[in-house]
């Protein structure tokens, strides 16, 4: 039975917002509703949340909808945080319950687990069964909010392979991290025989990476046409310096540098090199790269062209997964769950064996 704890709505809203950025609040609000409804209609007993991070989705599903959830996360620090946040949420609820009607408060079971791309479905289910320890044989609904790269592809495969997994809500991201032919024995893209059989089905790393950028957000930046557009060229010029000094660097491992628009290019370069634990470049190299900044318009045009094909790239990857399921007699739908301006990776693959 779907139990929305409406009597404590206000308190729960507060609990779910704590420690969560507005973008994620939006995603969690909509995804947990979809998952809880599918859990009920598919008659699954338990939810498995793949790549659960700090457990925000699981907290909403357990305390907000009374759903049994087990989370799988490889990062032990995230698990620790998830447990801390759960305790905090329960304490707040407990205080509120002195005045309000008391409703069950069971938090998720957080498990540190690395879902490997080649895990056999029966071994995977066996491991989860042992954690759940139910008297009746559980049936599972798999979900994952921005389960990155191969993790979302593995969820799809496990759903296809195990009769004990009856439903799926997968929101993917980081397509550039997908294993692709012929780089590895495991292949995250393409999954379907149909796409594998197409000439030119390969999607290069750069295109898959572009598919993770936010077209809608960049359109607003273009309209604003402020100094941030020029900043865009910083990274390209930084790349020139890095490649000159370290020709063996194929991809730039530079994380986003926050508030780069407040920095001069020299400061930006110094910070980037520090982050990479590299010794600072000399003045001549920086001055040389600085002259490239005058060409910032070309960088903006290039980026716009990449973004224009990005939705096609994402569609191909998601449709490949849909066709893969179809090839194994399983239907699914691809639904835009979130507001793309707020949350660009907004598509969910939703499936239930009950409705086949
Ligand atoms: C983009 S984050 C999303 C976190 C969380 N779902 C959220 O939305 O806040 C992806 C998470 O998946 C975890 N992850 C990636 N690959 C994994 C794997 N093979 N097994 C378990 N966790 C994994 C990462 O550690 C990370 O916490």
Automatic annotation (TrEMBL):
<protein>
    <submittedName>
        <fullName>Protein RRNAD1-like</fullName>
    </submittedName>
</protein>
<feature type="transmembrane region" description="Helical">
    <location>
        <begin position="296"/>
        <end position="319"/>
    </location>
</feature>
<dbReference type="InterPro" id="IPR052220">
    <property type="entry name" value="METTL25"/>
</dbReference>
<keyword id="KW-0472">Membrane</keyword>
<keyword id="KW-1133">Transmembrane helix</keyword>
<feature type="domain" description="Methyltransferase">
    <location>
        <begin position="23"/>
        <end position="180"/>
    </location>
</feature>
<dbReference type="InterPro" id="IPR029063">
    <property type="entry name" value="SAM-dependent_MTases_sf"/>
</dbReference>
<dbReference type="Pfam" id="PF13679">
    <property type="entry name" value="Methyltransf_32"/>
</dbReference>
<dbReference type="InterPro" id="IPR025714">
    <property type="entry name" value="Methyltranfer_dom"/>
</dbReference>
<keyword id="KW-0812">Transmembrane</keyword>
């Amino acid at each position: 039975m779907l139990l929305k704890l409406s009597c404590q709505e206000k308190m729960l809203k507060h609990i779910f917002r704590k420690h969560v950025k507005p973008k994620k609040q939006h995603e969690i609000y909509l995804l947990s509703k979809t998952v809880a409804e599918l859990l009920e209609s598919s008659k699954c007993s338990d939810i498995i949340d793949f790549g659960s991070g700090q457990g925000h989705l699981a907290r909403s599903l357990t305390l907000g909808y009374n759903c049994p959830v087990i989370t799988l996360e490889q990062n032990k620090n995230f698990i620790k945080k998830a447990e801390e946040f759960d305790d905090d949420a329960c304490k707040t609820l407990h205080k509120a319950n002195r005045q309000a009607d008391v409703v069950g408060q069971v938090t998720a079971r957080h498990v540190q687990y690395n879902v490997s791309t080649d895990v056999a479905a029966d071994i995977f289910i066996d491991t989860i069964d042992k954690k759940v320890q139910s008297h009746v044989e559980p049936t599972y609904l798999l979900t994952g909010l921005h389960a990155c790269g191969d993790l979302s592809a593995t969820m799809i495969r496990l759903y296809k392979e195990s009769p004990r997994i009856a439903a799926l809500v997968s929101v993917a991201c980081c397509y550039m991290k997908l294993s692709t032919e012929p780089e590895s024995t495991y292949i995250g893209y393409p999954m379907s025989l149909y796409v594998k059989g197409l000439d030119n089905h390969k999607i290069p790393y750069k295109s898959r990476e572009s598919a993770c950028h936010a077209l809608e957000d960049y359109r607003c930046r273009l309209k604003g046409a402020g100094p941030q557009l020029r900043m865009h060229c910083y990274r390209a010029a930084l790349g020139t310096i890095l490649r000159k000094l370290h020709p063996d660097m194929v991809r730039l491992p530079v994380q986003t540098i926050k508030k780069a628009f407040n920095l001069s290019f020299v400061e930006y370069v110094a910070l980037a090199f520090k982050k990479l634990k590299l010794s600072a470049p000399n003045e001549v190299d920086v001055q040389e790269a600085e002259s490239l900044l005058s060409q910032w318009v070309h960088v903006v045009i290039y980026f716009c062209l990449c973004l224009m094909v990005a939705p096609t790239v994402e569609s191909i990857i998601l449709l490949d997964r849909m066709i893969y399921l179809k090839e194994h007699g399983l239907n699914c739908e691809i639904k835009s769950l979130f507001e793309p301006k707020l949350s660009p990776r907004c598509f969910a693959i939703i499936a239930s064996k009950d409705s086949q």
